[in-house]
Fold:
Amino acid sequence: MRISCVFILLLWGMCSFSVEAAEVQTINPGEIHALSAALMDGDTKRTLYAKEGDAKRANASTTKIMTCILALEQCNGDEVVEVSEYAASMPNVQLGMEPGEHYYLKDLLYSLMLESHNDSAVAIAEHVAGSVEQFSAQMNQKAAELGCSNTYFITPNGLDATDETSSHGTTAEDLARIMAYCAWDSPVSEQFLAITQTPSHSFTNLILQEDGSYVSGAHAASCANHNSYLSKNAACISGKTGFTSDAGYCYVSAFESAGRKFTIALLASGWPNNKNYKWQDCDRIYAYADANYKMRTAPDVMGHMKPVALLEAANPSFDLAEQMQVTPYPLEAPGQFLMADWETLTIKVALPRTISVERAGESSIGQVSMAIDEQTVYSSDVALQIPVGTRTKTWYFQAVCKKWMMDFPKETVAFGIF
Structure:
């Protein structure tokens, strides 16, 4: 039977990190207009602040960050999109497409993210997956893969909708998690950021020529970025606004500053005529994040690794009674964590007391993890460097001979020499 030991180390108040304490900033419940809000660590996906963060609500055009990232991951921007009658029928805000028109996918992505055109969203979805229904299934699959717990997408543009399963919507925490993926974790994050940071973009539709090539058409469009927080806060690197009658004003954004990554999601941050509530909410939450959360270097986990006894190890001393002790090591070293002064870091090490030398060479014999206030921020398998092999017949013969020579009476040995 394999017996494991779990060692737990608590570092209270980050005292071992020698960090100079800063003045604690707080958020009073009444200061946030949004019915749901979340602040998330973009690296670990740890929720740093939430107000009804797990409550599902309509999220309007913030949905389009998922539409954009799926299109970027599956298609080339130079692909040509043909507009369907259904796509052209979408309500405002719209590009004003006509059925049968053609556009470069990359131009429609600017239309989607800068001006939030609903018809562009549907045209993109149909191009990527064949239909809105199939694209929505892809959106929900991606949300599940990212660990979203209460998200359900029906439309690629975020228009309010309900089907036999549920209503279109997400939570502030899930939306913040999706933005973190779009901004940093997706293989096409750089393209996503380039689009969402662009101040303006102009393009036209395409006219198909007899030789199969395309030339610019007469339908000209110019898109301006409506994420004004990009110019208001130098740390803001991306964001998407949204509004419907059910959702109210919504906003999701990503921030980078001093090695830190944050995402902020706001749902139902007021209704007309309170369009600026979302900016006020974002100001307060970012100020809270900026003042309280700093990057801290993780402690050296090797100092918490206990030696493991290797059973039946062929020790070089040929000692039958000796059990070799080997200190394990983590396969991945911890780096830095985003923490506030009042938070607690917990280190857990789960290792066997003893292990057979045959099994000691496995890729993992245990695990080490770190959690901040019970939210895991680091985990790694633990392995051993095996200094010797198992005991063979030859090893046993040598060990017995050595013991026999050591235990044999000296006078008998001396008698045998003469």
